[in-house]
Specification:
12 strands; alpha+beta; 265 residues; 60s Ribosomal Protein L30, Chain: A; 2 domains; single chain
Amino acid sequence: MSPKEISPTTLFPFTLPIVKPSQKLNSIVPRTLRGHQFELRHGDIICVASKVVSIAENRIIHLDQKRVSTAARTLAAKYAMNSHLAQIVLEEADLIMGGVKGFLLTIKQGILTPNAGVDVKNSPAGTATLWPAHPDNSASSLRASLMRSGESRIGVMIVDSRITPLRLGTVGLAIGLSGFRTLRDDRGKYDLYGRRIIVTQTNLADDLASAAHLLMGERDERKGLVVIRNAHITMTAHAPANSVFDPKKCLIGSNLSSDSIGLKP
């Protein structure tokens, strides 16, 4: 296939209403698309901001209702954090690696992320919003609902943001997935000069999440829904391959040290 025959990847952002706790994404998303007379096509990837999913799933905690432990007070003092926020992060994180002023470096669901995904930005006053409890299930549920409503075979992705080591600013991160293969494996193939590729795999999910995140924004844009068309991915009815892997095999993960605070059995 020549470059001229490859359909360009196109992104369509949509403004969502202010989502409230217990509202159903299974109705909000299709209603938004219908309101714009937008019809999904085979292979489309529906990207939803994680904060939208979390609020709809009641993943909101009032900061002042949290009882603060001694460990949380220690973390809050060391890293200049709100002690109630530190307590929530301590409970949500699988592992705390360290931190900087205002933030803890954590591992959550196998992902290296600040504050275990706990965020006060774009969360109702006096609250913090957590990641969805089961992001892949959230994506699968929305995908199943859209498929039942007669849409074409599609994929769904829950998108958050993250920081990249030694780089300033946030990029997109796929924390929940359904309906498409998330990795492209180039191992065993050859590069431009005929060398056999040994380790390279492309994380398609995070690449696409970053593209969606570019349009979603981080402030009051309300572009919590982005449809990616012609993403050149492979659809699948099975659970997507998990891009999380053993930290000991990771270049970054294997070189991190932990103070073991927050490590759960």
